[in-house]
UniProtKB/TrEMBL annotation:
Native organism taxonomy: Bacteria, Bacillati, Actinomycetota, Actinomycetes, Micrococcales
Species in which this protein is naturally found: Microbacterium jejuense
UniProt entry tagged with the keyword Transferase: yes
InterPro entries hit by this protein: Glyco_trans_1, Glyco_trans_4-like_N
Pfam families: Glyco_transf_4, Glycos_transf_1
Domain called Glycosyl transferase family: residue spans: 185-340
Protein name: Glycosyltransferase family 4 protein
SUPFAM superfamilies the record matches: UDP-Glycosyltransferase/glycogen phosphorylase
Keyword annotations from UniProtKB, A to Z: Glycosyltransferase, Transferase
Domain (Glycosyltransferase subfamily 4-like N-terminal): residue spans on this chain: 16-171
C-alpha cells in the first residue's frame, strides 16, 4: 500500500480556512477506503491539538508553525527529510507551501496566489517577497498542483508559470455549523454577519462605510468576527460614527458561531480577492442568505444563489444590505437557492478527487 507523508507544519490552530480544508479533507479520506497509508508530519503547536481526524500516524516535527523563520526552514528542508525517513511514496503539502526539493513526488495544494495577484492588499509587506520565492520553489518541485477554484488555477499559471495540464481544480466544501437553529433568524433584529481575518483584501471597511449610508430606521447591526489584538477596524467605526451599529469581535468559539448563524439575517463578504469562499458554502448550507462581492471566485462558489455587489462602491454595498434586510421574499428565495448550491460541494467529493490526483501521480489506475 503506498504511503503518503502529509505536511502539517502550518497546522497550529490559527490558520483558518487552510486548516479547515486539511482537517475536513483527511477526515473524509478516513471515512472511505483510500488504498493509502498516511503519516502526518505535524508542527509543535499542532501536536498539542486534537488530531483524531487524521487517518494515520502522527509524527511530531518539533518545529514551530508560528515562528515564521523556523516554519519556513521546516517547509523547505525538513518535510523532504521526514519523507525519506518514513520511506513514503508521495508527499502532500495541503497549505500552499512545501518542500523545495524531494526524492519522492509532491502534490501541492495552492489555495491562492494573493501575494502575486494582490500585493497591495497584503498586511505584511516585508513578508511578501520571501513568500513569493517559497511559492515558486514549492510549485517547481511539485509533480502536480491542486487548487480550489478556476480563478486560482488561472492565476497559478499566470504568476507561477505552471502549465494548466499540471493543475487539478478540486473545490472545497462546507456544512452548517453544529447547533444552528434558523428558526431564531431575526430574533435580535436585522443582523449582517461577517467572519474573517483583518487582512486588507477582506475589505471589511466597506461594510462599515455602507452602514453609515443607510438611514437608521433601515440599518442592520453588523457583526464582524475574527479580529486579533488591537482591531484595525476600530478607527473606521469611530470615524463614521457607527459604533452603535457595528460590533467588532475577536475569534469566537463554536457555540457563539452557532448562535450567530442562528440569528443572522444574512452573511456578507466584501472581499477584493479570494481563493475560494468556505463561509459562503457554510452559510448557504445553514440556510443563510449570502451577500458577496462581485468577483469571479464568488460567482463560482455562490452561483445564482447569492446577491452580488460592487466591492469598490459603498452605495452598492448599502443597497445589497438594504435589499436583503427589507425583502422577506428575496430572503426566502435566496435560502432555497442556497441549499441547492451548497449541495454541489461536499468533502467526500473533495477527498475522492484529491485521491485521484495521488493515483495519477503514482500511476495507479
Amino acid at each position: 500500500m503506498p504511503r503518503v507523508l502529509v505536511d502539517l507544519l502550518s497546522f497550529t490552530g490559527t490558520k483558518g480556512g487552510m486548516e479547515t480544508y486539511t482537517r475536513e479533507l483527511y477526515a473524509a479520506i478516513g471515512r472511505a477506503p483510500a488504498g493509502y497509508e498516511f503519516v502526518g508530519f505535524v508542527s509543535r503547536e499542532g501536536a498539542a491539538l486534537d488530531t483524531s481526524w487524521f487517518p494515520g500516524r502522527i509524527v511530531e516535527s518539533g518545529i514551530s508553525g508560528e515562528n515564521r523563520f523556523e516554519w519556513a526552514w521546516g517547509e523547505l528542508t525538513q518535510v523532504s527529510r521526514a519523507a525519506s525517513r518514513e520511506r513514503v511514496d508521495l508527499i502532500h503539502a495541503p497549505a500552499t507551501l512545501g518542500p523545495r526539493r524531494a526524492s519522492v513526488p509532491t502534490v501541492l495544494t495552492i489555495h491562492d496566489v494573493l501575494y502575486f495577484s494582490h500585493p497591495e492588499h497584503m498586511s505584511t509587506p516585508l513578508y511578501t517577497e520571501p513568500v513569493k520565492w517559497m511559492e515558486k520553489q514549492a510549485s517547481r518541485n511539485a509533480a502536480r498542483i491542486v487548487t480550489i477554484s478556476p480563478t486560482s488555477a488561472s492565476e497559478i499559471t499566470k504568476y507561477l508559470h505552471v502549465p494548466g495540464e499540471r493543475i487539478d481544480v478540486v473545490p472545497l466544501a462546507g456544512s452548517a455549523p453544529k447547533g444552528v437553529e434558523r428558526a431564531r433568524a431575526g430574533e435580535e433584529g436585522p443582523l449582517i454577519l461577517a467572519m474573517g481575518n483583518r487582512r486588507p483584501h477582506k475589505n471589511w471597511a466597506a461594510l462599515i462605510r455602507a452602514t453609515a449610508l443607510i438611514p437608521e430606521d433601515k440599518r442592520a447591526r453588523i457583526v464582524i468576527t475574527g479580529g486579533r489584538g488591537e482591531d484595525p477596524l476600530t478607527p473606521i467605526v469611530d470615524e463614521y460614527g457607527v459604533a452603535d451599529w457595528v460590533d467588532l469581535r475577536g475569534w469566537v468559539n463554536d457555540e457563539e458561531v452557532a448562535r450567530l448563524y442562528s440569528v443572522a439575517t444574512a452573511l456578507a463578504i466584501p472581499s477584493f480577492a479570494e481563493g475560494f469562499s468556505l463561509p459562503t458554502i457554510e452559510a448557504m448550507a445553514a440556510g443563510i442568505p449570502t451577500l458577496l462581492s462581485d468577483i469571479d471566485v464568488h460567482r463560482y462558489v455562490g452561483g445564482d444563489a447569492a446577491h452580488y455587489f460592487d466591492p469598490t462602491d459603498d452605495a452598492d454595498v448599502a443597497r445589497a444590505i438594504t435589499d436583503v434586510v427589507t425583502n422577506a421574499a428575496l430572503r426566502a428565495q435566496m435560502v432555497r437557492a442556497g441549499y441547492a448550491q451548497a449541495a454541489g460541494f461536499s468533502w467526500d467529493r473533495t477527498a475522492s478527487e484529491t485521491l485521484s490526483v495521488f493515483d495519477k501521480v503514482l500511476g495507479r489506475h
